[in-house]
Design goal:
By secondary structure, this protein is an alpha+beta fold. It has two domains: 138 residues, Sandwich (Jelly Rolls); 106 residues, Arc Repressor Mutant, subunit A, CATH 1.10.10.60. It is 40% helix and 21% strand. It is built from ten helices and nine strands. The strands form two sheets. Strands 1, 2, 3, 4, 5, 6 and 8 form a seven-stranded antiparallel β-sheet that branches. A two-stranded antiparallel sheet has the order 7-9. The longest helix has 19 residues. The radius of gyration is 19 Å and the shape is globular.
């Protein structure tokens, strides 16, 4: 797996995430959903995204806006460089209701089709990634981007509440990933058979039950490691791992480094305080 310089992982129903700006472009991550909007901009390379069941091939200069509640994932990239922004819609009161009630017929807008001030905002966001982020400034840039992008999108009603198993899996696990879960318990909660569930993970989500849950848990752990002073042991339990050993192993598989290594890199000022 890649470190966070190359792969930025999305949040999953983390309602404490009000605004997050990250450099890099996700290489691969299974389909998921959350309550925040997610904006990604590709500067170089190529990438493949899945949004509400559609496959999108992104080229340099593409800006993709995933509305809150949209299922989306990343299915591979080639030398991709860009940025990702995740934000709670209430950060942008002028657009919050629209973002929550509508969906774009196509979520991709070309950067060169936007007015000059929008392109300037994207450039400023790219600069913000390289320094300590000013949240009010980032919020202002995104406000301009939304004001320029949304009128260029054909907005439609979101699909009716999904009833297919894949959507129900994503929705349920986005809220319950930190709980002790087995495949059998998940099948019971969704009123399907374990074999049907396994088939859905394999054929629709292209992963296993355990790998999917660990991806959600590792992502939430990244948030806690970066934004709290909790010990690694506490974070392991907060994310649903039974032991720190299983946490370390799953985190290493997902992120390419141990939780302690991630924290030292993400928050070097804590190096003297956390040695566990």
């Amino acid at each position: 797996m890649h470190s966070e310089e190359n792969v930025m992982r999305p949040y999953f129903e983390d309602l404490s995430c009000r605004l997050r700006l990250s450099p890099g472009f996700p290489a691969s991550f299974p389909e998921h959903l959350h309550t925040q909007l997610e904006l990604v901009c590709l500067f170089s390379g190529r990438a493949r995204m899945l949004v509400d069941g559609r496959t999108l091939f992104l080229e340099p200069g593409d800006v993709c806006l995933c509305f809150p509640g949209a299922t989306h994932g990343y299915a591979g990239s080639e030398a991709a460089e860009g940025l990702m922004l995740i934000a709670a819609p209430e950060q942008f009161p002028d657009f919050a209701e629209l973002l929550e009630r509508r969906r774009p017929a196509s979520p991709v807008v070309r950067m060169d089709e936007l007015p000059p001030d929008a392109a300037l905002c994207l450039d400023q966001l790219r600069r913000e990634c390289a320094r300590e982020t000013s949240e009010p400034a980032v919020r202002g840039y995104v406000q301009v981007l939304l004001a320029r992008m949304l009128p260029r999108m054909e907005l439609v009603d979101p699909p009716a509440e999904h009833s297919d198993t894949a959507y129900r899996i994503m929705r349920y696990l986005s809220r319950h990933f930190a709980e002790p879960l087995t495949l059998t318990e998940l099948a019971r909660a969704l009123s399907v058979s374990p074999s049907h569930l396994s088939h859905t993970f394999s054929q629709r989500l292209h992963t296993s039950f355990r790998a999917y849950v660990n991806a959600l848990r590792a992502d939430h752990a990244c948030t806690l490691l970066r934004s709290t002073d909790f010990s690694v042991t506490r974070i392991a339990y907060e994310c649903g791992f039974e032991t720190q050993r299983t946490f370390n192993r799953a985190f290493l598989e997902q992120c390419g480094e141990t939780p302690s290594e991630y924290r030292r890199r993400a928050r070097p000022e804590l190096n003297d305080r956390f040695q566990r």
